[in-house]
Design brief:
Structural class: alpha/beta
CATH class of the largest domain: Alpha Beta
CATH topology of the largest domain: Heat Shock Protein 90
Distance between the termini: 51 Å
Number of strands: 17
Strand content: 15-25%
Helix content: 40-55%
Length: about 475
């Protein structure tokens, strides 16, 4: 059984080895976050001890990369630090999936007990069982430090509360107060079903099952437009209940699924595009020859129409190929504002032709590493989408600004908005609400954004739709 220990200080690695070697685990040492990720690519680990303050990739960033891989999402992580002791750091650690956050210097026996306990927990096949054992077994071991545990529960972003056998609240954290919109004084000692009778139909059966069968139960609950994953754990005192917001996770899952579909289409297009384009080129060439011959003058219009259709098919194939995530991009330092200014005459001409107005508001933004042609296509597709969504007299807004360290491109229209049932399908290949469209424009935008480490957010209402393309922070770049 392997444990990965990550610390840039050799003395700390030696000290941790001395503490843990008696547990007879196979200890693997990494001196940086990058080394740790390389080990995780090759081996499976039962636990990770992770220093927070490291040069280059720090512990928090390392944990974020670790959790990004499906196979690593449930490996227990203990952060160890001598510097990052603020409540903000602790909360950040737990938000990244840590199961504990220790300060140096620590008691060796305490660390040994924690490591041994968390490794046992990791061996459980179900995450609910892991959490149940964590709350029950480690809760008993840490009763002497109950105030510390209370502080941890108060600092986490999940809703957490406990009920006694009479269904009365005996503990609620700050997030639970916000969730119930009541203070601790209004909740403690009160019966949950009397305070919130509307919960009975959905919640009671799961709560009662955990209480009578002494086994954990879980379900999903929609509250104020936020989707929660609810875990119910039985204990000697009653029940411990945790509400975890999974709205973003579901959104990310949908985005990942969409990108995977886009990549599949792109890969197929790459594979068959060559075979299709060769005969198309041959047919196009013969049509041009026929159209130029005097004896076929009466058919020249048909030849030109067929050539136009072949060119349109070729353009669609090009769009398909653009969906592949491994498409080569040529990144160079570029100004987003300059790219928009270059496109403005073309955009303005389209707006005048369709009796629409363009509003451009370009604020100072950082120079970004961009593929010029891909960003041109991204901007043009979003603008065209917005223009087509509006009737004559509508205004299209193009904005750029910095949000913290991220550069944001905004394209907003004054159309009638996107229907809720259609919103989740935005960016899906072949999905379109417009006639004579392939449904590839927005799909291409999502693929281009993914290749530039950017994310697209959509804000829609009956008064219009706005696309936000957020380009994540990059290292400071000097303009070319």
């Amino acid at each position: 059984m392997k444990i990965l220990i990550v610390d840039d200080n050799q003395a700390n690695l030696i000290a941790l080895e001395a503490v843990l070697k008696s547990l007879n685990y196979h200890l693997i040492f990494a001196s940086s976050g990058e080394d740790a990720l390389r080990y995780l690519m090759k081996d499976d680990f039962a636990m990770i001890l992770l220093d927070v303050q490291m040069p280059g990739m720090d512990g928090f960033e390392t944990a974020r990369f670790i959790r990004a891989r499906e196979k690593n999402k449930n490996i227990p992580i203990i952060f160890i630090t001598a510097i990052c002791k603020s409540e903000e750091n602790i909360v950040q650690g737990y938000n990244l999936g840590a199961i504990d956050y220790l300060f140096k210097p620590f008691h060796p026996e305490t660390l040994k007990l924690k490591v041994e306990a968390f490794v046992k927990i990791h061996l459980q096949s179900q995450q609910t069982m892991l959490q149940n054992i964590f709350l029950q077994q480690l809760g008993r071991k840490l009763r002497k430090t109950s105030q510390k545990l209370t502080n941890i529960l108060e600092s986490i972003t999940d809703v957490f509360f406990t009920l006694n056998h009479q269904w009365e609240f005996i503990f609620v954290n700050k997030e639970a107060e916000k969730f119930w919109q009541k203070s601790k004084g209004e909740l403690i000692g009160r019966n949950i079903w009397e305070l919130f009778p509307a919960l009975l139909p959905e919640h009671y059966s799961f709560f009662a099952k955990a209480k009578t069968r002494k086994e954990a139960s879980h379900f999903e609950h929609l509250h104020s437009d936020i989707l929660y994953e609810v875990h119910v754990y039985p204990s000697d005192e009653g029940l411990s209940i945790n509400y975890h917001d999974i709205s973003k996770r579901r959104m990310f899952e949908k985005e990942i699924a969409c990108l995977e579909r886009l990549d599949l289409v792109g890969q197929m297009a790459v594979g068959i595009g060559h075979e299709i384009r060769n005969p198309m080129t041959t047919v196009r060439g013969f049509l041009q020859l026929l159209g130029e011959k005097e004896e076929f003058t009466e058919f020249k219009g048909y030849c030109e129409l067929m050539i136009e259709e072949l060119d349109r098919a070729n353009a669609i194939i090009t769009e398909f190929i653009g969906l592949a995530k491994n498409k080569v991009v040529y990144l160079q330092p570029l100004s987003m504002n300059r790219l928009i200014e270059n496109l403005y005459p073309l955009i303005q001409a389209d707006a005048i032709a369709s009796n629409k107005d363009i509003i451009v508001d370009l604020q100072d933004t950082e120079v970004l590493l961009l593929d010029e042609q891909e960003i041109y296509q991204l901007i043009f597709n979003l603008v065209r989408n917005g223009m087509e969504a509006m009737s004559a007299g509508g205004k299209l807004t193009i904005r750029t600004f910095m949000d913290g360290e991220d550069a944001v491109l905004v394209v907003g229209d004054e159309g009638s908005g996107i229907k809720t049932k259609d919103l989740e399908k935005m960016g899906t290949p072949f999905f379109t609400t417009k006639e004579n469209r392939t449904g590839m424009g927005l799909a291409t935008c999502f693929s281009i954004s993914a290749r530039h480490n950017a994310a697209i957010q959509i804000d829609t209402s009956p008064s219009g739709t706005t696309f936000f393309v957020r380009f994540k922070q990059q290292k400071k770049i000097k303009s070319a």
